[in-house]
Design goal:
- The complex is a heterodimer of chains A (626) and B (194).
- Chain A is of the alpha/beta class and 626 residues long.
- In chain A, 42% of the residues lie in helices and 12% in strands.
- In chain A, strand 12 (425-432) and strand 13 (438-443) form a beta hairpin.
- In chain A, helix 1 packs across helix 3 and helix 11 packs across helix 14.
- The longest helix of chain A has 19 residues, at 522-540.
- Chain B is α/β, with parallel strands linked by helices.
- Chain B has a single domain (12-106, 145-191), classed as Rossmann fold, CATH 3.40.50.
- In chain B, the strands form two sheets. In chain B, strands 2-1-3-5-7 form a five-stranded parallel beta sheet, sandwiched between helices. Chain B has a two-stranded antiparallel ribbon with strand order 4-6.
- The chains are: A alpha/beta (626), B alpha/beta (194).
- The interface between A and B is medium-sized, with 23 and 30 residues.
- Chain A: It holds the Pfam family NADH_4Fe-4S.
C-alpha cells in the first residue's frame, strides 16, 4: 500500500491503498463478520490473507467499521505473529524451529531454502514472492523438521526435499501442488493426511480404538443436565490440557451460574512444544470432539460454542468446517438437536494466529473476544465470568472426547482405568530420540521406563515431560509414574539421548518463553530474558558458582510474581535440570580468580566505537601491529 | 552521633573514582560535613579526585565507585580498583544500574545504535550548534562502549549504596560500620526515597 510510509525491506507493497476498490474489499471483510469488534482476529486474518499484511490505512478503515480506535486495531494486529505490519511474500515459508527440529537437521533444511530462494531467514524476496521465517513448534515433532508454506504443512523434510520444494515453489508451483497434483480433488480428510502423518502407534480403549458414532450424545439427551455432570464427575475425568482440573466440577460451577448465556469453548491451541495429540484427535475423531462439546452444552445450558484452533493447524480448517456443516445438516448441531425440543447448540471455528500464550484459558478467551491474547485477572474464573462476561467452560480437545466416551460407556468404566486420582487413558505425544515417535494412548500409571520400552527409547538419558513448562528428568527418575500426582503431563514426552547437550535444550526452551511471553507483566517479560542470558553464561563456561543461586533466586521471583501460568512455569526447564542434572551445571562453573567478570568482553564492547573512530584502543589494543 | 570506633593501630586506606557519573555522588561524600574530620582520623585517602592522586600508592581496604562504565577508560579504572581494593562499593544509581547515561541503551532497534546516538548528539540533533559537523575524535578521547554497563557487570561488587545521590548520612553510616566491621546492610528507612 502506498501510504507515504517507507518500509525497511524496500518492497513495493501490493496496491490496497484506500482506493475505492480496496476500501470496498476491507468494508466487505468487516461486513462478513458483522462489523463486530469481537471478530477482530477473523477480520485481521482475512485482511492478512488478502493483502499479505495489515497496512496502516486498512487499520483506519477497520477501526471505522468496527467502531474502535485505530490504536486498538493495531494493538491486536501487532500482537499475533501470523499478522504482519510489513508486507510479506506471496508465499510465506515458516520453518518449525523446535529443539527436535534442530536435532533433525533443521540447519540443512534452512540452508536449502535460503540458497534456492536467495533470501535469509527473516527476509522477504525483492520481488515480493517469498518470505522465509522460523516459528516455534507447529505440532509436528513426530515428523520433524516441518514447515508451513502458507496454509500447507510439509513434514519430514530433508535438505534434498526442502531444495526440491523450494525449486518447485520458485518455478511457480502452488503450495498445494507440493502435497498432491490432485489436491483440489481430495476430501479435506485426505488433504490433511497427505500433509501430516498421524503416527498412531498405540490405540487405547477410550479414544483411538473403535468409537460408535454419537452414542454418548444419545444417552446424554435422555439424561438431565445434573445427571450428566454427576456422571462426568464420578468418572474422575480431569482436564487433559495439563492443569488437570476435575472436569465435572468445572461443568458444575458453570452450570450453577445464573446468566443469560453460557458458552462452551474447546481449547485446540496446543502450543506446548512437543505436544501434538490434539492434532491427531482433530483429524481422526472430530465428530467425537463435537459430540463432547454438545454434551457439555447440554450439561451447562450453553447455546453457543467456540472451537479455538491454533493458527498453525490452519490445514485442518476445511476438515473441521466440513464436520460442523455435516452435523448441522444431520440435526446434530443447530436447534432441536436429535429432535430434543429446545436443545439448541452451534459452534463457530475461531482460528488463532500464532501465539502460544493463547493456550492459557484467559488469554484464549481474550483472543476469542477479538483482543490481543493477554491473560485475564483471576478471579473471576471463566466458569463464573468468561467469554464476554458469561459463564464459560474451557476444556481441552482430549477432555471433550473423553467426556463423550464416558457418557456412552459409563463413569465406572472410565474410573476403573488408570490409577487412583488419574483415571482413564491419556494420549502421549512422543518425539525426539526414539524409534517410534508418535501418539500412544495408554492408561495412566505407566512408569517412564515402561513408556520408553514401548516407544523404543531405552537409551534415553533425559526426558522432557510435559513440554518446556513441565520437567526434565534423568534416568534415576525413570521409575516414576505418569500420573497427575507424579509425572504430570499434558501429553508431551520428548526423549533425549546421551549425545544431546542439556544446557542447549534449556537455553532453547528459555528462548521459547522469551518469545512467547505476552509482555503484560514485568517478571515474565524481563525475568525470562535474564534467565536466558544467565544460561548462556553457563554454556560459554563463564559462570561463577554464585550464578547457580542467582538462577534459583530469579526463578523463584518469576514464579511467585507472574500473572499467569506462563511465567509460573517458564523457569521449570532451569529448576528441573538444576535438580535432576546438577553435574551439568557444576561441571561448567568456575570461581572467579580476581573479581573481574569474564562475561564482560571489552573487545566486543568497543568494536563499534573502533569502527566509528577508525582507530585502535590505546588501552586494550596493546599490539600496535593490529 | 557517630559509630566511629577508636583510632586503630593502622589507618584504613580508601580510594574513590568517578566513572560515567555526574560527580554528584562525590559531592555527597562531602556532605558528611564536619564528621569528615573524625573520619580522617581513621582513614587515609589514596587514589581519589578528592586528593587528586591519579594512581594507587598502596593496596586499599575500600574502593568507592561513582558512575557506570560508558567508555574503555572507565573499564580500565574499574579493573584497577578491583585489583587494588579489598572491598569495592558501588555508590549511587549510575554505578549500580547505569543511571542517566544508560538512557542511550534504549536505542535498541537500530543496526548501529552508537553511531545513531553520536550523530544525533553532534550532527543531526535539532538544537545542535556544531560548526565542525563532526563527531569529536581526538586520539586522547577514550573509545565509547557499545552501551553503558553497571559496574557489577564488569567486576564483582561487594556493596551497593543506593540513591541519586545517596545522602551524606547514609555514606557516613556505611563507612563507619564497615570500618568497625558492623555493616549488616541498610535499615529500610535509610534507603526509602519519598
Amino acid at each position: 500500500m502506498d501510504n507515504g510510509q517507507e518500509h525497511t525491506n524496500g518492497i513495493k507493497a501490493p496496491s490496497c491503498d484506500l482506493d475505492p476498490a480496496s476500501a470496498t474489499v476491507i468494508a466487505e471483510i468487516c461486513q462478513r463478520f458483522d462489523n463486530d469488534k469481537h471478530r477482530m482476529l477473523d477480520i485481521l486474518r482475512a485482511v492478512q490473507d488478502r493483502y499479505r499484511w495489515i497496512a496502516p490505512a486498512t487499520m483506519n478503515k477497520i477501526a471505522e467499521a468496527t467502531d474502535l480506535t485505530r490504536i486498538e486495531v493495531e494493538g491486536v494486529a501487532s500482537f499475533y505473529s501470523f499478522l504482519s505490519l510489513t508486507p510479506k511474500g506471496r508465499v510465506t515459508i515458516r520453518l518449525c524451529d523446535d529443539i527436535v527440529d534442530r536435532y533433525s537437521d533443521l540447519k540443512g533444511v534452512t540452508a536449502a531454502f535460503e540458497e534456492v530462494l536467495g533470501i535469509k531467514v527473516g527476509e522477504t524476496s525483492a520481488d515480493g514472492a517469498f518470505s522465509l521465517e522460523v516459528t516455534p513448534c507447529i505440532g509436528m515433532c513426530d515428523q520433524a523438521p516441518a514447515a508451513m508454506i502458507n496454509d500447507i504443512v510439509l513434514t519430514g523434510l530433508t535438505p534434498e526435499t526442502a531444495r526440491s520444494a523450494a525449486e518447485a515453489l520458485q518455478s511457480g508451483t502452488a503450495p498445494e501442488t507440493l502435497v498432491s497434483d490432485r489436491f483440489n480433488h481430495l476430501s479435506p480428510h485426505e488433504r490433511a493426511l497427505r500433509q501430516v502423518d498421524n503416527n498412531i502407534r498405540h490405540a487405547g480403549e477410550c479414544l483411538l480404538g473403535p468409537v460408535p458414532e454419537d452414542a454418548g450424545l444419545v444417552k446424554a439427551l435422555s439424561m438431565t443436565p445434573v445427571q450428566i455432570v454427576n456422571q462426568v464427575e464420578a468418572s474422575g475425568l480431569r482436564g487433559c490440557g495439563g492443569a488437570g482440573f476435575t472436569t465435572g466440577r468445572k461443568w458444575r460451577f458453570a452450570a450453577s451460574e445464573t446468566a443469560e448465556k453460557h458458552f462452551i469453548i474447546c481449547n485446540a491451541d496446543e502450543g506446548e512444544p512437543g505436544t501434538f495429540k490434539d492434532r491427531v484427535l482433530l483429524t481422526e475423531r472430530p465428530h467425537l470432539l463435537i459430540e463432547g462439546m454438545t454434551i457439555a452444552a447440554r450439561a451447562v445450558g450453553a447455546k453457543e460454542g467456540i472451537l479455538y484452533l491454533r493458527g498453525e493447524y490452519v490445514y485442518l480448517r476445511e476438515l473441521i468446517e466440513q464436520v460442523l456443516e455435516d452435523r448441522r445438516s444431520r440435526g446434530l448441531l443447530g436447534s432441536d438437536i436429535m429432535g430434543k425440543k429446545g436443545f439448541t447448540f452451534d459452534i463457530r471455528l475461531q482460528l488463532g494466529a500464532g501465539a502460544y500464550i493463547c493456550g492459557e484459558e484467559g488469554a484464549l478467551i481474550s483472543s476469542c473476544e477479538g483482543l490481543s491474547g493477554e491473560p485475564k485477572t483471576r478471579p473471576p474464573f471463566p466458569v463464573n465470568r468468561g467469554y464476554l462476561g458469561y459463564p464459560t467452560v474451557v476444556n481441552n480437545v482430549e477432555t471433550f472426547c473423553h467426556a463423550a466416551r464416558i457418557l456412552d460407556k459409563g463413569a465406572a468404566w472410565f474410573h476403573d482405568m488408570g490409577t487412583d486420582g488419574s483415571h482413564g487413558t491419556k494420549l502421549f505425544s512422543v518425539s525426539g530420540d526414539c524409534l517410534n515417535p508418535g501418539i500412544y494412548e495408554l492408561p495412566y500409571g505407566h512408569t517412564m521406563w515402561e513408556l520408553l520400552e514401548i516407544v523404543g527409547g531405552e537409551d534415553a538419558t533425559a526426558v522432557q515431560v510435559g513440554g518446556p513448562s513441565g520437567a526434565m528428568i534423568a534416568r534415576d527418575s525413570f521409575h516414576r509414574k505418569l500420573t497427575f500426582d507424579d509425572l504430570a503431563t499434558g501429553g508431551a514426552i520428548i526423549v533425549f539421548n546421551g549425545e544431546r547437550n542439556i544446557l542447549e535444550i534449556v537455553e532453547y526452551y528459555m528462548s521459547f518463553f522469551v518469545h512467547e511471553s505476552c509482555g503484560y507483566c514485568t517478571p515474565c517479560r524481563v525475568g525470562n530474558v535474564f534467565l536466558q542470558k544467565a544460561i548462556q553464561k553457563f554454556q560459554k563456561g563463564l559462570a561463577n558458582p554464585e550464578d547457580i543461586d542467582y538462577l534459583k533466586d530469579l526463578s523463584g521471583t518469576i514464579i511467585e510474581t507472574s500473572r499467569c501460568g506462563l511465567g509460573m512455569t517458564s523457569p521449570n526447564p532451569i529448576l528441573s535440570t538444576l535438580q535432576n542434572f546438577p553435574l551439568v551445571y557444576s561441571a561448567v562453573v568456575k570461581p572467579s580468580q580476581d573479581g573481574i567478570r569474564a562475561t564482560f568482553d571489552i573487545q566486543s564492547a568497543i568494536e563499534s566505537a573502533r569502527k566509528i573512530a577508525k582507530r585502535r584502543s590505546y588501552i586494550f589494543d596493546r599490539d600496535f601491529s593490529q | 552521633m557517630n559509630d566511629l570506633a577508636p583510632a586503630p593501630h593502622r589507618k584504613a586506606r580508601i580510594a574513590t573514582a568517578s566513572l560515567a557519573g555526574c560527580f554528584g555522588c562525590h559531592m555527597a561524600i562531602l556532605d558528611i560535613d564536619e564528621r569528615l574530620i573524625d573520619l580522617m582520623k581513621l582513614v587515609d585517602v589514596d587514589r581519589s579526585p578528592l586528593t587528586d592522586k591519579k594512581r594507587f600508592t598502596d593496596r586499599c581496604d575500600i574502593g568507592i565507585i561513582e558512575g557506570g562504565c560508558c567508555n574503555e577508560e572507565n573499564v580500565h579504572v574499574l579493573h584497577d580498583f578491583r585489583r587494588n581494593c579489598d572491598v569495592l562499593i558501588a555508590l549511587g544509581q549510575c554505578a549500580i544500574m547505569g543511571g542517566l547515561p544508560a538512557m542511550r541503551n534504549a536505542i535498541m532497534h537500530s543496526d548501529a545504535p552508537l553511531r545513531e546516538c553520536l550523530d544525533e548528539a553532534y550532527i543531526t540533533g535539532k538544537y545542535i550548534r556544531n560548526t565542525t559537523h563532526q563527531v569529536p575524535n581526538d586520539p586522547a578521547l577514550p573509545l565509547l562502549l557499545d552501551e553503558v554497563y553497571p559496574c557489577a557487570q564488569v567486576v564483582e561488587i561487594d556493596f551497593q549504596i543506593p540513591g541519586c545521590a545517596p545522602s551524606g548520612d547514609i555514606i557516613f553510616d556505611t563507612l563507619a560500620k564497615l570500618l568497625n566491621g558492623k555493616f549488616r546492610g541498610f535499615e529500610p528507612e535509610m534507603i526509602k526515597f519519598d
